[in-house]
Amino acid sequence: MLNVKVLGPGCANCERVAQMVMTTLEELETELGDNCPEATLQKVTDHEEFLKYGVMFTPGLVINEKLACAGRIPSKAEVRQWLTSALAETEA
């Protein structure tokens, strides 16, 4: 199972990252079919939670409790790579 969190106050940039993650997860699900594990996407707006991951600037992206990036909007290719890597780790 993939656990994805978008850290931020709910601003437009946070929403862009969340939408990019959802779109990428849908694409991976289509490509992998039954081999794609279940995924959850959580939007975290609590500043105390940001600090637990070391995020000083939002948006932040956490995949399976590992900080993938913070303070910027990642490219779709980056998000796909991170999610694909996380999927490979869950299968191992």
Summarize the structure.
By secondary structure, this protein is of the alpha+beta class. Helix content is 47%, strand content 23%.
Commentary on this structure:
This protein has a 4-stranded mixed sheet with strand order 2-1-3-4. Helix content is 47%, strand content 23%. It is an alpha+beta fold and 92 residues long. It is globular and about 35 Å long. Helix 1 crosses helix 3. The mean pLDDT is 92. The protein has a single domain, classed as Glutaredoxin, CATH 3.40.30.
CATH hierarchy, class: Alpha Beta
The chain-level structural class is alpha+beta
Provide the domain count.
Answer: 1
Largest sheet, if any? Answer: 4 strands, mixed
- Give the overall shape: globular
Written as H for each helix and E for each strand, in order along the chain, the element string is EHEHEEH
CATH topology term: Glutaredoxin
Helix content: 40-55%
Topology:
Blueprint lengths: L1 E6 L4 H21 L6 E6 L2 H6 L7 E4 L2 E5 L5 H16 L1
Parallel strand pairs: 1-2
Antiparallel strand pairs: 1-3, 3-4
List keywords for this structure.
alpha+beta, Glutaredoxin, about 90 residues
